[in-house]
């Protein structure tokens, strides 16, 4: 079959001089055509083969975003090997745990992580793992990635792959427990691409990627589809709101994707008022419902329309899509399933529920992952006998077929015997003009079992009090849903993917004398 490792070479046949990637993380942005990008990946694949890397082996990378991630990603695919990007935000001891799960043949690392790799070396856990330094800062016995790029490989022949062969291991977010390695097959990547291009992605689009490349959003949402279509992906070291606005103008970006917190941070950036976003055809938001005030602000100030969606590491990542014309009419919805995705809302026994009845969201289709690497128990638990993947998300489907995430199954808490879904409360809070960001978490309570605490960041130069916000919610929600307390923060903890870290927030509250 034509697998991921063939994509750059196939596109280079049709448009070898078209711009494939811009690495804006470099002091001087690096621009690569499809022919150049394919040559780099081929040289890296040949170097890995010289090390003895073969089909099924794992190759890990611990580095901030940059073109080297994609060099290794496509190189591994040419060998039938598995690309494994590490979450660089984790503590090095957590990295060791992941290392033990995947047992890589090689680990490439950036300059920022020399101390991390050195500490890991001292434990002996890296014995037998070939280390590769991406920048001119080696550790003991590491090889230079630059030497790989400098060595031509004219006789390289890719390793054939099959649809079910695994191309990458992407770790789940870990915000609710120990990360698991989702096994992403060549089949899943191809079907996700098909689900994506149906939604008006075009040849020649220019996409600015601000998602971390250890995240499924960074690799698969638009990066791979545009490699097939012949568009351009622009990379940055990590998300920065002001830089993002500047790059959209400078690179004439046509497609941008982010999560709601990113869009709110961009709106609060000092260069928001002067930012030229006229090149954008659309923006995509996922990860959580985009608050209606944000949609309205972008439309009014910049003329931008939003597509919204929903996905996850284990499925897609493109699962649902909400068209711009539905953004306000169906505010809070994740949209309808993508073309090749089946979705349903079921009860605890797996029976489908009627419209507007909350239950667990389940998914089925060819863009699902192959389970969790080295974890057959978790793989078996995630799917039922009929092949439905159980997401752990609570959702409802309205009479028109639009889906709404009610909350994470694990985020739901029970107060006085009633199920409380924080996402519903957060959506109500965002309607208050002074609220910039918010999150609601459940904490133990001797009377009610659990109660909600609203964690709020206010907009600059705006004020609101705890009684004011509680009264505001009482006018909009049932009494048992209204948080018993409001805590104000300068900022909320967010992951590298821009998602709120509710577990960390809950730990802060429980450690607070006022929590």
TrEMBL record:
Family: Belongs to the ATP-dependent AMP-binding enzyme family.
Enzyme class, UniProt record, top EC level: ligase
Keywords (A to Z) from UniProt: Ligase
E.C. no: 6.2.1.-
UniProt domain AMP-dependent synthetase/ligase: residue ranges: 11-373
Pfam families in the record: AMP-binding, AMP-binding_C
InterPro entries: AMP-bd_C, AMP-bd_C_sf, AMP-binding_CS, AMP-dep_synth/lig_dom, ANL_N_sf, ATP-dep_AMP-bd_enzyme
CDD domains on file: FACL_FadD13-like
Organism: Chloracidobacterium thermophilum (strain B)
Any GO molecular function: acid-thiol ligase activity
Protein's name in the database: Acyl-CoA synthetases (AMP-forming)/AMP-acid ligases II
Residue ranges of every copy of the AMP-binding enzyme C-terminal domain listed in the record: 424-499
The keyword rRNA processing appears for this protein: no
């Amino acid at each position: 079959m034509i697998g991921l490792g063939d994509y750059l070479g196939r596109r280079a046949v049709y448009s070898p001089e078209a711009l494939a990637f811009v690495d804006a993380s470099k002091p001087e942005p690096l621009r690569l055509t499809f022919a150049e990008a394919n040559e780099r990946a081929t040289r890296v694949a040949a170097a890995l083969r010289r090390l003895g890397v073969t089909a099924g082996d794992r190759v890990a990378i611990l580095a901030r975003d940059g073109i080297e991630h994609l060099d290794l990603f496509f190189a591994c695919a040419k060998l039938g090997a598995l690309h494994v990007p590490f979450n660089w935000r984790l503590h090095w001891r957590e990295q060791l745990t992941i290392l033990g799960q995947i047992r890589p043949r090689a680990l490439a690392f950036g300059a920022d992580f020399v101390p991390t790799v050195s500490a890991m070396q001292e434990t002996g856990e890296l014995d037998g793992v070939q280390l590769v330094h991406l920048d001119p800062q080696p550790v003991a016995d590491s090889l230079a990635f630059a030497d790989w790029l400098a060595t031509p490989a004219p006789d390289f022949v890719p390793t054939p792959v099959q649809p079910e062969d695994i191309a990458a291991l992407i770790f789940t977010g870990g915000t609710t427990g120990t990360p698991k390695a989702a096994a992403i097959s060549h089949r899943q990547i191809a079907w996700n691409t098909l689900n994506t291009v149906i939604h008006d992605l075009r040849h020649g689009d220019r996409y600015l990627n601000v998602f971390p490349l250890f995240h499924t959003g960074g690799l698969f949402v638009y990066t791979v589809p545009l490699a097939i279509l012949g568009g351009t992906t622009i990379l940055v070291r990590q998300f920065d709101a002001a830089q993002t606005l500047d790059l959209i103008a400078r690179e004439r970006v046509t497609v941008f994707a982010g999560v709601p917190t990113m869009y709110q941070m961009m709106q609060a950036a000092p260069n928001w008022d002067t930012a030229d976003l006229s090149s954008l055809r659309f923006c995509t938001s996922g990860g959580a419902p985009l608050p209606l005030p944000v949609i309205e602000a972008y439309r009014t100030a910049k003329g931008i329309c939003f597509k919204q969606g929903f996905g996850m590491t284990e499925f897609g990542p493109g699962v649902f899509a909400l068209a711009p014309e539905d953004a306000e009419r169906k505010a809070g919805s994740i949209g309808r399933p993508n073309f090749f995705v089946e979705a349903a809302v079921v009860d605890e026994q797996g029976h489908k529920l009627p419209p507007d009845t909350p239950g667990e969201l389940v998914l089925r289709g060819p863009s699902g992952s192959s389970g969790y690497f080295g974890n057959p128990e978790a793989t078996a638990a995630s799917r039922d006998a009929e092949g439905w993947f159980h997401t752990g998300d609570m959702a409802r489907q309205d009479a028109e077929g639009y889906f709404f995430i009610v909350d994470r199954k694990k985020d739901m808490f029970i107060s006085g015997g009633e199920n409380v879904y924080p996402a519903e409360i957060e959506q109500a809070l965002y309607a208050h003009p002074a609220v910039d960001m918010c999150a609601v978490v459940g904490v133990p309570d001797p009377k009610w079992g659990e109660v909600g605490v609203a964690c709020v960041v206010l907009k600059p130069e705006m004020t609101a009090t705890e009684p004011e916000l509680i009264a505001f919610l009482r006018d909009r929600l049932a009494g048992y849903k209204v948080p018993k307390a409001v805590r104000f923060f300068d900022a909320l903890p967010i992951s590298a993917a821009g998602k709120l870290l509710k577990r960390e927030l809950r730990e802060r509250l429980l450690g607070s004398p006022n929590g």
